[in-house]
Inverse folding.
DNA sequence: GTGGTCTAGACCACG
DNA sequence: GTGGTCTAGACCACC
């Protein structure tokens, strides 16, 4: 459950939090019925404002991933694992499609694209800045 | 030179325009010395606010891709083709790295990532929504 | 005395409990002098936090519906039946007024409202979800 | 488009705003394609904090009722009228069902319920407090 | 000008 | 203790 938010990568912090939780649920690190850390605790962990965490949690409630148990906290819903597994692939595929679409529409060949992807992957493995 | 902006893909419209022009220059569709369409004409073509086009052109001037020819309009600089060819790969690689980074940091394997990429590529070829 | 609380209908659980007891006293199911179940027992029955039951009982004491008999538990007061009969209509009327007010203030006609009420009543008779 | 929020009626202000807009769209007072008042203007009109209005507008975006036109404001979507007409009846019916259910489950007869409803309606017409 | 994000902090409802 | 609501105000992105 440990991770960090990057305030400078363009994706809003609350969305980074929501995406991270969805990934965690998708791979079983967070099971149905479990509680997520309290708003206040998560805010301390990530060194962000509690309202920012609350926004992420609220969005996840709207998506049916989390459920309020009044007075005790927020729990992962029973349907969440299914939802998140579906969402995980979708989130990544969607971003990839957007990049591929731009590249191909602007005349790059698939070979060039593959080469770039290989480069990018190598850079990520080496820990380069995104 | 025909293309459309997608107001819903997260990338600011002015940046989509600038990126498109750089791609066009990189593959020679727009040669050094040629003029780009006027702000007004481009705005009409893309059904976009003229200020948005102006913003894209201004950014391109700052990058040395376009230069003002007083009275006649904006022209592609002589150095632009070289700049844009270099930028083209970089623009795509950067977006790819960002996606890969998120995916790998959240526990997807490279195999899963490859599968998703293949999916995404297939979807783009078939013309699916990005 | 059997009933269930609905954690998702907007009314706080402690208030659902208090309302239920008042209804029970109003129609004689619970007579003056009788004891209500202990906080613990009621909490088990309803699968609810004991503090929540305690809160309901406390509110009812403040309203003069229950009184503490030291050592033996909480009993229905002699005045409770009268109080609760009066309150019963009031509780329902108040909620109805709130709904009607919103509807009429937002342009629904009384005819439309009547139709919706008839619909709602039919649904309740058929046991639909509230 | 004029209305007032009541900070003391239990319904959150942002929800009162959202509900009001849905009612307005449902009865055609606000047509598809029209812009809603800006966050700041609405905040002044209702004498509430801009963030509160923004929250209502954001919820309506999530429901597909409003749509962001970047830089120019928020517009009513084309599907909104249909959505809101459906929602209008649903919002009222749902509240009514909840009241009826409670009343009937606790032993009130339909005749008593009808009498209470008539009373409530009379009170609302006379402008009594809800 | 528009909305969006984030921070900060008060207050309340609930258990 | 939990989350929710609301206010206040700074800063940014976009048009």
């Amino acid at each position: 459950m440990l991770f960090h938010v990057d305030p400078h990568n363009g994706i809003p912090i609350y969305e980074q939090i929501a995406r991270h939780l969805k990934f965690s649920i998708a791979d079983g690190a967070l099971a149905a019925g479990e509680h997520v850390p309290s708003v206040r605790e998560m805010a301390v962990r990530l060194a962000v404002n509690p309202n920012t965490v609350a926004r992420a949690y609220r969005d996840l409630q709207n998506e049916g991933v989390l459920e309020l148990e009044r007075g005790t906290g927020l729990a992962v819903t029973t349907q969440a694992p299914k939802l998140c597994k579906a969402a995980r692939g979708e989130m990544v595929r969607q971003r990839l499609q957007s990049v591929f679409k731009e590249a191909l529409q602007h005349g790059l060949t698939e070979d060039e694209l593959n080469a770039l992807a290989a480069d990018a992957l190598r850079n990520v493995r080496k820990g380069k800045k995104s």
Chain C touches chain D through 42 residues (CB under 8 Å). Strands of chain C lie at 66-69, 73-76.
